[in-house]
Design brief:
Serine Threonine Protein Phosphatase 5, Tetratricopeptide repeat, mainly alpha
């Protein structure tokens, strides 16, 4: 992926949205590998490019914010993760409307964060709203719907222990 970043930078310049997409994707891969120190600057750089080139309310900004929130959550940096996730949710609701599957993804991400913090009632409200959106927009058998339902069952098991 670093090669893709290099090629895009050479072809389009360092501030092009395609460069940001490659940076964001590479940062997400590093984050999933636990390479947080390498991941964070790439995601932040992608976020900055998107904000500058596409505007602060663009859906790609929300995508980078989501990846940054995942990185912060994985590191236990919950206080930093929540405003990032909330900003991504706000952008998605504004750009797509409150019933879009990307809104449900943001809700599910917030639910996971709240679960990690032991904020179970808030997590449950977020997951239930996400499930409603997924069922309405994608159907009851879609993998995203089923995953959210699974997350709700796990949460309910935790609450009932």
């Amino acid at each position: 992926m670093q090669r893709a970043v290099d090629i895009y930078e050479t072809q389009f310049g360092p501030e092009h949205p395609d460069v940001a997409t490659s940076l964001n994707n590479l940062g997400d891969v590093y984050s999933l590998q636990g390479r947080y120190g390498e991941a964070e600057p790439l995601i932040v750089q992608a976020l900055t490019i998107y904000e500058t080139q596409l505007g602060e309310q663009h859906p790609y900004v929300a995508r980078s914010l989501n990846n940054l929130g995942k990185l912060y959550r994985a590191q236990g940096r919950y206080g930093e993760a929540e405003p990032v996730y909330r900003r991504a949710l706000t952008i998605r609701e504004t750009q797509f409307g409150s019933q879009h599957p990307d809104v449900a993804r943001s809700l599910n991400n917030l639910a996971g964060l709240y679960y990690s913090q032991g904020r179970y009632e808030e997590a449950q409200a977020m997951i239930e709203r996400a499930i409603d959106i997924y069922q309405m927009q994608l159907g009851p058998d879609h993998p995203d719907t089923l995953k959210a339902q699974h997350n709700l069952r796990l949460l309910q098991e935790t609450i009932n222990q």
